[in-house]
Every structure is written in C-alpha cells, then in structure tokens.
Amino acid sequence: MSEGTRRSEGIQWGEEMQWDQAINEIEGFLLWEAEKDRTRVRAQAFCAGLPWLTDSQRREVEWRYCQDQRDTSRAYLERIAIRSTALRTEYEGVYRALRRRLITGLLSGTVAVAALVTVAAAGLAVR
Predict the structure, then answer these.
(1) Chain-wide mean pLDDT for the chain?
(2) How many alpha carbons fall within 13 Å on the CB side of residue 108?
(3) Which residues lie below 8 Å from residue 58, measured CB to CB, with a gap of 6+?
(4) Is the pTM of this model over 0.70?
(5) In this predicted model, what pLDDT tens digit does every residue of 54-80 receive, in sequence order?
(6) Which of 56, 29, 28, 61 lies closest to 44, judged by CA?
(7) What's the rounded Cα separation, in Å, for the pair 107 and 101?
(8) Cβ contact 62:43 at 8 Å
(9) Under a CB-based contact definition with an 8 Å cutoff, are residues 61 and 45 in contact?
(10) Tens digits of per-residue pLDDT, 27-51?
(11) Half-sphere exposure of 102 (CA within 13 A, CB side)
C-alpha cells in the first residue's frame, strides 16, 4: 500500500468520524428539543388543572415546572451517559478476552492438525 493511499484513507476515516459526530450532535439536539416540547406540554396540562391561577402565576408555574423537569431530564441523561460509557468499556474488555480465546483455540487447533499431519506423514514415510 502506498503512502498516498494510506493518507487518503486516513482523510476519509477522519471525515467519516466528523460526519458521525455531527450526526450524533444533531440527533442529540433534536431529542433535547423534543424533550423541552414535551415538558412544555406537560407544564401547560398541569396548570390547566389549576384554574385559579392568574396569567402571571400560570406563566411562573409553567416556567418553574419546565425548569425542574429539564434539570431532572439532564441529570437522568448524564447518568445514562456515564453508565453507557462504563458498559461500553466493560463489553469491549469482554470482547477482547473472547477474541483472544477464540484466536488461541484456533491456533491450538491448527498446531494440533499440523502435528497430526506431520506424524501421519512420518508414519507413511517409515513404511
């Protein structure tokens, strides 16, 4: 493989990573905006059950409800992200161990077959 080919593949890989990261950022933004909209709808529904509130009180309650719900959602998302990272690390370790065991088994089997073929060939040569 030439140096130029390696460089161009590296550029493509880097561009793919940038695209993946950009897509993840956009997806995260859209999901967060949807969560804010759901929160706003729930806040309005909550305030609809409190007909004695004045307009300014209603706005204040809705604002506080939304703020509290966003803080709660953010905390959940942060915990999920931490757990997701921990699981990824754990699964990658398990995958590496399984792959190592599989390769070890495959190589052991190959050596065993080669030894049997050698012994068989030696046995046929002696006759």
Answers:
(1) 88
(2) 6
(3) 47, 50
(4) no
(5) 999 999 999 999 999 999 999 999 999
(6) 61
(7) 10
(8) yes
(9) no
(10) 989 999 999 999 999 999 999 999 9
(11) 6
